[in-house]
Amino acid sequence: MLSKKQAQVFFLGGTAVTFLIFIMLTIYSLSSAQDQSNQENLTAEAIRGKEIWEKNNCMGCHTIMGEGAYYAPELTNVLERRGDAYVKAVLMSKIPWQPQGRKMVAYGMTEAEANDVVAFFEWVTEINLNGFEKVNRTISPLAKDRMID
Amino acid sequence: MKYKSQKVAYWFFALSMLLLVLQLTYGFIMGFARLGYDGLHEWIPFNTAHTVHLNLLVVWLLSGFMGAAYYIIPEESETELWSVKLAYLQLITLAIVGVTAVVGFHFNYWEGRKFLEIPRILDWPVALNVILFLVILLMTIIKGKKTSTTSLVLFGGLVAAALLYLPGMITFDSQVLDSFFRWWVVHLWVEGVWELIMGGIMAFLLIKLTGVDREVIEKWLYVVVGLTFLSGILGTGHHYYYIGVNNIWLIVGGIFSALEPLAFLAMALWAVNMYRKGEKKHPNKTAILWTLGSAIVAFLGAGVLGLAHTLPQTNIYTHGTLVTAMHGHLAFWGAYAMIVLAMITYVLPNVTGRKLFDTSRARSAFWLSNIGMFTMISGFGAAGIAQVYMERKLGIEFMEVQNEIKVHFWVLITGATILSTGITLFIIDFIKYGTPSDEALEIQE
Ligand code: HEM
Ligand code: HEM
Ligand SMILES: [Fe+2]
């Protein structure tokens, strides 16, 4: 039968080994050769856009790249779905945006702020999401043959 | 109760209960908003309610863990707490920081990163508070007569949880790196070090309630936490599938996160077997109910419902949908809410000297809150599966789908009402126990 000492070794050993592998994999996947996060196109506008995104906690209603809350549309591909002008209209609206009956906060952003958020979305659109970006298109990858483009 | 200073635990539990009530209130605000009743939108929009709901959850659980540690560590070390005054100071500052953060959320003082919304200026008081807490425990362990495995695992879990808060404080310009390191906190907490805390509390409760030999219980504690880290650390990869990092994580995350349920299965088998082996003589049957319930529901919520969406082939469809909310609720409830409620049920009679356990109200609190939670997650689940099918497979637009699945949120509200009834009964009992008293020192547990 397993002794308490052996159980302890199993715990400490297993933890140490998997933790080391985890750190190595982290370094590997974040190394510039493996980078697929569109780091090189991260502009000052996109960074300001991310700050606006966080300052207003858009993630408390929306998801982006599948992360956030599930109350409002997933925004990874919102520019492809709606275009810049529409998105800017949403952000600059002075009354709660709610074409389908669910209220967004009325941010009444300036044109410049809205442009920054759009730059942020543009940057996100270019990230390689291992296929998730396709699932969120209006047509699912299971229906590839029905895709027109 | 063996040591006077263990009474400190009571006040942490009281804070915990207060915050739980608030957490549920904000849950209702979101539930009703989803049904179209969003009259509070001007003052408490959904994102505010969401942030408050999640952060109150984390703070009431942490307060519960702290109370548990202040009770367990002196008893296991066979000594009074190192400093009761500092422990109360820590309690008060925790409450102040917590309340400040929650009030601030209503005025857009937040970081806007799910689960880690506490603004940077408050991160420092939080850090100081936690360091104070850990120092009090460490000094107690050092001056104690004994150092048990249970207290070491519990303390180790708490230290690691504090350290893991740090990666969440780094700022990144890239949303990808931001979420990469956000998971070092969120995932490595709930599927790593918090399981150590849970395991430590569980071991303590099993030792006290079943009467099985400590050596046997603690041996299996090592096995459980060993399985946790073996699977859970690399299992972090299940959050890295689709956020813009290398696809090596699809394989690593897929395999190791699929092994994570084994740790929860081991936890459940451990608890049930120790109970079976035990003498079943302990009169506090309700505490046993919560303890075993926690192990079993954690297996269902984290293990089974986690497995349901953890393979990359499934997760590509369910990622960021209400399916996740279904899993999140039952996992947090079973693993962490129930273990805190178990500890409270065990501790209250010991610190107050009143034996109000094993009443029909105490049992109803257990059953109603669990039936309520299962009803809630069936609402989330039905809504989530329908959402995945319509939105991700048929390609129907998000808001159109949301309007189709609205009806399931009546089920959520019904479940939430049953859950809240159970929690209300629990809190009535809590109040009826009254405040702790030194007279409880002489009482046989
Ligand atoms: C007590 C332990 C656990 C708790 C408290 C928990 C809680 C949660 C929560 C709250 C989320 C949502 C996180 C967010 O979006 O910010 C989540 C996501 C997730 N959990 Fe767990 N979980 C636990 C264990 C597990 C286990 C053991 C597995 C796998 C077998 C698992 C698989 C997942 C997956 C795959 C996601 C991502 C869902 C998505 O892509 O949207 N969880 N969990
Ligand atoms: C009155 C009872 C409750 C109600 C009505 C409620 C409702 C909700 C709603 C509507 C959401 C937001 C889902 C979304 O993003 O759209 C949510 C999120 C969440 N709630 Fe609750 N909740 C309740 C109790 C609880 C309890 C007791 C726990 C923990 C044990 C909990 C843990 C969570 C978690 C972890 C999330 C984030 C889930 C995720 O993003 O995957 N809730 N809740
Ligand atoms: Fe996870």
* Ligand types: protoporphyrin IX containing FE, fe (ii) ion
Radius of gyration of chain A over all CA atoms, rounded = 21 Å
* Rounded average pLDDT of chain A: 91
Which percent range fits the helix content of chain B? over 70%
Count all strands of chain A and give the number: 2
What is the total tally of β strands of chain B? 0
Whole-number radius of gyration of chain B? 21 Å
Give the largest interface: A-B, 69 and 74 residues
Distance between the termini of chain A: 63 Å
Largest pleated sheet of chain B? none
| Largest β sheet strand count, sense and barrel closure of chain A | 2 strands, antiparallel
CATH level-1 class of the largest domain in chain A: Mainly Alpha
Mean pLDDT of chain B: 96
User: In terms of structural class, how would the helical and strand content of chain B be classed?
Assistant: mainly alpha
**General form of chain A:** elongated
Order of helices and strands of chain B: HHHHHHHHHHHHHH
Write a brief structural summary.
Chain A has 149 residues and is an all-alpha fold.
Layout: helices, strands, pairs:
The complex is a heterodimer of chains A (149) and B (445).
Chain A: H1 4-30, H2 44-55, E1 63-64, E2 67-68, H3 78-82, H4 84-92, H5 111-125, H6 132-135
Helix pairs in contact in A: 2-5, 4-5
Chain B: H1 8-34, H2 46-77, H3 84-105, H4 120-143, H5 149-164, H6 175-210, H7 214-235, H8 248-277, H9 285-307, H10 312-318, H11 322-352, H12 360-393, H13 398-405, H14 408-433
Helix pairs in contact in B: 1-2, 1-3, 1-14, 2-3, 2-4, 2-5, 2-11, 3-4, 4-5, 5-6, 6-7, 6-8, 6-9, 6-11, 7-8, 8-9, 9-11, 11-12, 12-13, 12-14
The complex binds protoporphyrin IX containing FE (HEM) (2 copies) and fe (ii) ion (FE2).
